[in-house]
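Build the 3D complex.
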Amino acid sequence: MAPIIRIQNLNKFYGSKHVLKNISIDIEPGQVIGYIGPNGAGKSTTVKILVGLLSDFTGDVFVKGIDIRKNPLAVKSLIGFVPEMAELYDVLTPNEFLSLMGSLYSLSQEVVAERAGRMLDAFGMGGNMDQRMDTFSKGMKQKVLITSGLLHNPEIIILDEPLSGLDANSVIIVKELIDKMAKSGKTIFYCSHMMDVVEKVSDRIILIDEGKVVADGSFEELRQLQDKDSLEAIFAGLTSTQSMHDASDKLMNAFD
Amino acid sequence: MNFIDQFFLWLVLLPTAVYRKLNVDLNQLKAVLTAKLTMDNRRPASFGGRNRGKEKKEISKATLSTMAGALFMGLIMLYTFGVGVDMVTKLSLYLSMFIFMICITLITDFTSVLIDVRDNLIILPKPISDVTFVTARLLHITIRTTMVVLPMTLPGCITAAIMQGPAIILPFILIILLMTLLGIFFINAIYILILKITTPVKFQSVIGSIQIGFVILMMAAYQLLPRMMQSSTFAKASITDIPFMQFYPPFWFADACLLLSGKGFSPESMMSLVLSIIIPLLSIWLVVRVFAPSFNRKLGMITGGTSEQSAPVKRLEGSRKISLLERLAGLLTKPGAEYAGFIFAGRMMGRSRDFKMKVYPAIGYIVVFGFMMFFQSHSFSAALPGSSKLTTPLLMIIYISSMLISSAMLQLPYTDKFKASWLFFVTPISKPGLVISGAVKCVMTLFFVPLALALIVLGLVLQGPSILPNILLGCLNVLVIGSIIAYIMVKQLPFSTAQEGAAGGSTFIRSMLLLILPGAFGLVQYLLSGFQWVILLLLLITAVIPWLVFDEIKKRDWNQLKQ
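Done.
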């Protein structure tokens, strides 16, 4: 099967800082990719390139065979994006916000109203459709964001810390949703620091550190390779140069 | 921090004894001020950190344009030196205009500095005393205001020196300084009073409407003064002839200024001098010692007060209601990005606190100006032959109202929530110009069309159809002006950019600068207003221009957006 996302020799510089170093990844349709790495590893940069926020990179990115630099609009139409940190125009209501997003994806207002209503109802927020989001909690905003990313029924869904702020029940809903969407053939690109969730939802885990892919495989494969039990331990083994205990000791000693 | 900020920081920290006396913690004061001034000159990085690595040390363009605008206002204010028989009168009028300009700049542009809600989470939880915090806030705003005051008063200072000799320069500077302080404390005291009366949760919405009301009041006073001066008796009169002038603050300051420059000694002017110094200092004391403590506590509740989260309501099933905004958008824009831009801008302009604070006061200006024009219309006997008496005042109102459009346009790209604009970048928008065009159309529809319709009806009722060509041409010209301003100034997506710090945010002053454009259009039409056939011809030509300009705006590509 042809890969739905093909990243080849991707390099990205911020000024003289080399953030992504020759990253090459092929992603098959229907895969759930857990994309992990320490702070500053280049996760967000990869995501920004995939969703079309950054275009000054070298190398090639193809989404469903379309070169993202040649036809960014076609690629953007295929992707649903749920960004990290709920940044929203919160003086709008969910209804208004989602209808804005819908218009930008060229959906008709009727379709948007219908879908948005059903999705927010499912999240238990049907009654909040017409309230301004400035009074919403972080979790409620996150639910609106997730809805906005799925609204146009995209083939690829890129989630950046989608569970932040969600209550336990909503976490279960979203995890099951990811599973069901993958089964229906959608490709999920899941960025997170929550190792236990990544371990459970992903078919394939890609770990990057300092702009390079340092591990790529299913959780089982990584476990055998590293001989560790949890993703957390694998992560630490691959990315950290010093032991965590040392670091916490040093933090405590800073007061002396 | 650039060198200007560093200089001012050093300057305001000089009177250490005073701060100690007020129980201000000097280290904290310096730390807060340094941080605030540094932040003012920094724009947060946009998407992808395009600004990363480029430390901006130089003064931003917006700061320069605000200063240029202030200089322009300062030049206009010079006309007060031509009124009245004596220097006290001239100076009193000049200083009245000055304090007016300062107050209005403070209200429209510096409120975000006075009430920075980020402070609630960052500074207030730290062990900092209320006095220190309020002092820091006041000094911060003093420094910012000075950037406007300096260019604004420079022409006045030079003129005064030419008329009175160089001895007046130092007293003039001192008096301007004291008046600026008075203005700052006056506005601050008003805010504190409002906070005392209303609940903190309501404060943000209340402050917006109070600001607008206050600006309308100030505008009315500002309009009345020149009218009084125009009457021939006043032109040759002295302000000292008016009873109770001793209670009018700008008069004390003018009097004191002259006394200090060695002119006009009298017991009254001694009194003026004392008042000029005591009142600003007293207001400092009042704000810092009496009002400050409760102010901070209440301020803390502004962001803490999200507890009144509205309960979910039962959603109504059935057909969706289509709002007026959506109807208008459907009528005026193409579906997709332009439609979305129209609706988005319409909703945000009505709700974003930032936007309302910077733009709505201009509505007050136009309302007052409109009334003044209307009741003054009998004085326009100078109307040119062939045109009616009513034409000129109505045209004036139409052209002045373009100021509202231009301040709305200038403010359109800015918001605190600029990070939320990621959505425009991840959705398949072929040309961002479409969104901008939708938003600009919305600005014109909401901020001009109602007024235009009202004036057309008014003109028809009072004058009959003969006035129609002139009014229509005026309205079309405003649309032309609006679209040109949009083409030149609106180079970002609506509500997608961080305001360029408090350093360069004087929308009011900058939109005054843009009045030159309608001024030129208006003058030409005024001269031609008597020739009906010329007007009709122009009407046909002008009707096409906005569409052409909008076509250009729509073509704007991603790489043509200003970063």
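The mean pLDDT of chain A is 88.
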